[in-house]
Amino acid sequence: MNTIKQTKLEAHYDVVIVGGGQAGLCVSYYLKQANIHHVVLEKEPELTHAWRCKRWDNFTLVTPNWQCLLPDHPYTGIEPDGFMKKNEIVEYLDGFIEKLHPPAILGIHVTHVAKVGDQQFVIETDQGTTYAKHLVVAAGGYHTPIYPKLSSPLPDNVMVMHSEQYFNPEQLPEGNVLVVGSGQSGAQIAEDLHLAGKKVYLSTGDAPRCARFYRGKDVVKWLYEMGYYETTVKDHRYSEEVRNSTNHYVTGRDGGRDIDLRKFALEGMRLFGRFEDYKDGKLIFRPDLVKNLNMADETYNRINAGIDTYLSENNIQTDEPASVYEPVWQPESEVTEIDLAAENISSIIWCIGFRPDYSWIDLDIFEKNGYPTHHRGITIDPDVSFIGLPWLHTWGSGRFLDVAKDAQYLSKYIVQHLSLDIRDNPSSSELVNI
Fold this sequence. Notes:
Blueprint: E1 12-18, H1 22-33, E2 38-42, H2 49-53, E3 69-70, E4 73-74, H3 86-100, E5 104-106, E6 110-116, E7 120-125, E8 128-137, E9 144-145, E10 159-162, E11 176-180, H4 184-195, E12 200-203, E13 213-214, E14 217-218, H5 219-225, H6 261-266, E15 270-272, E16 275-279, E17 282-285, H7 289-313, E18 337-339, E19 345-350, E20 354-355, E21 374-375, E22 378-379, E23 384-386, H8 403-424
Parallel strand pairs: 1-2, 1-8, 2-5, 8-23, 10-19, 11-12, 11-19, 12-15
Antiparallel strand pairs: 3-4, 6-7, 7-8, 9-20, 13-14, 16-17, 17-18, 21-22
Protein name: FAD-dependent oxidoreductase
InterPro entries: Auxin_biosynth/cation_transpt (IPR050982), CHP04046_FMN-dependent (IPR024000), FAD/NAD-bd_sf (IPR036188)
Pfam families: Pyr_redox_3
């Protein structure tokens, strides 16, 4: 656990940052440089809590270590092309926190935020009330775990958990396990259980996949060189809808490799289409397993083909020739119903995502889906900004790669915005140096 010298809640700040993950801390870094009076409010007893307590034991980054570029704190280890394990990620973050010494309060829960007048927020917490000129929401977008509505209640003897509650196979009772969802968490948790010798039943979805290595290099490195991580929401073919897209599944485990669900099926994993319901002792799935596997493989091959084109157009030679993935396994039929008890399924892990919960923010800045309306994190209220959301601005946003760039942009905006307020109200504070 990181140890910091906590500050006390003051009556007023220029900026209040809600959330003490890497995104909020990056904003704090730049605000400290600009001498802006601010505080980081974190509801958990430690900063960067999710990395410590909401990742399974064998978790690794899926992007290489060289992409870890927090402000003044790049990765400096001996494996820049490797993938940090959970404990190494925590050590990396602790090093950043030690450098930063952020003005933070831990274990404080923000219960309500509203605006008083045109330029001031009243921020209520379980430790008192404070006021701020600018609000930075760095609480992420993954708040409420999603559980499906079932026609029948699951038996009491079946252990049920969400992905954030899974740590290791030893948690689970004897018997087989159903993992629902094949996004990054679902695919990697299924792999973790499969490698541990558990009989895994995996309900797939429409998550895409990509190769770990291709043409002699990590695919992430190729995509970085091709400029993909600089693709903005505005420039993406799906525009704003890309923010709702599912990440490609791949793993950094054991030095990094593909996750090929078809290969797992050859080794005994049972694959099904999208989960539909549990009713009268039966687990029900859609007849779309073939479609889901094919779509994932099409994305895999499309990304590799894009790399081939890039290499050809730039006359880049590699020792590894171009190739196309050919399925190593095909389902004999679409199984849409199985008996829970007969299959000896004693545990279910839901890996179907989260919903945002900004109910504590009493401001008219949200869309119908619960996400804020914003441009590069700046909302339709110029005194409120968000940081750390996927595709906040680019594909690299929300990752260790570009969270510092997003934070620097927002912090510069905040400093300039506050300086305008100061000039309009010269008695309220001293002018900051931009």
